[in-house]
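ok trying this again, last paste got cut off
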Amino acid sequence: MKVYDFELAVIGGGSGGYAAARTAAGAGLQTVVIEGGEEVGGLCILRGCMPTKALLYAAEVKHLAAQSAIWGLRPGKIGFDFARVMQRKNEQIQDFAGFRVQQLNSGRFDFIRARATFLDPHTVQLSTGKKITARYFVLATGSRVAPAPLPQLAKVGYITSDEAVMLKKLPKSLIVLGGGAIACEFAQFFARFGVQTTLIQRSDQLLKEADTDAAAEIEKVFRREGIAVFTGTKLVTAQSRGKLKSITFEQKGKQISVSAEEILFALGRVPNTEALELPRAGVKTRQGRVVTDAGMRTSVPHIFAAGDCAGPHEIVHIAIQQGETAVYNLLHPRAPRSLDYRLLLSVVFTEPQVAMVGLTEKTASDLRVKYIAASYPFNDHGKSLLMEAKDGFVKLLAHPKTGEILGGTCVGPVAGELIHEIVVAMAGRMTVHQLAAIPHYHPTLAEIWTYPAEELADKIKLGSQFKTL
């Protein structure tokens, strides 16, 4: 039997890579984590989930303070210290990243700071000059900002989400290119801190993965808060106009130009796999993304992948599940586990937040899954009225015969928290009848789920073989 330097080499020390290494070390595998980034922690901690949510919460507190006269308060003029906003975010991120560094240096596995390139299926060349061999590999190199679609943008100059979370001062005006979660979150953040903001989305709606009613609700709020929103566009060119930067695009057959002090490019990310030289290992990719089966195994049996470099969903908790699943399957090849995306969960941290689990009406239609749906608005719900949180709604999708919950959408206050009630219900294969029968305290936000559940339960008549609580 050939002797390797390590039983498992994990390339990438972010959430997916750390989960794989932790799982492998716990199972007794001699493991090494190789991290080639300038900083340690992964996208979520350093440039993604944590810093953006820290900034968004600051913007929400500022917005609530400015609106507090609604509740009889006398706030006066609400000012802010942007440097302090960023300082607090930096302090928190340093704590999170520091803890991840401690985890990676805990001694449970080896940790090497270097870039890795495959020489053959079992060997990587490190940027330090050293070579390492391993019986198994888990690729977890994450993603990077996608290249700009307009060649002129490079000359004009722009920032990405990576730079946006590190700004020293606010621009006076901003053009946001994109309409996904990152674009929408940043657009509202900057607008709430007084930046004149324009958002340009290529698709016909914001949040193209969401149902049209959810997207329309967010667009309504954005326009109310002074954000200029353009959807259904085609980017034409970018150019400098004095001290301003300009984007020209087509919409409904007309050319429109908008200018701002800065441009935020937020049109997605791509897998960070180029430097790995995966063809030398025989690993197949598709548009840079590592191709895996449902058990996270690549085209090479001893090489697995997890996280953004593999997809299909760039979400932290899924990256963690993928990393754990990859190691389980290399340890148990005769009884492998598969990733189940039935409970696919996503949250956009705008205000109102947008949260979805399982099927939306759009995905159900695309997959030709039969369903019935019911929704209920927050502007007719006791607790949300007390909070003056009147935007949005909840919606449930159910099987038309059995009543099993197939999906849920929440656009509204703390939607990212509220959606977990439906995650739990779907994990237990619950029906709308069972959900409607569960006691909910009054007045709470969570009880709003009982209204669409009751409406659907009334429409779906169950036979005696189906039981409720």
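PB: full thing came through this time. The first strand starts at residue 6 and ends at 11.
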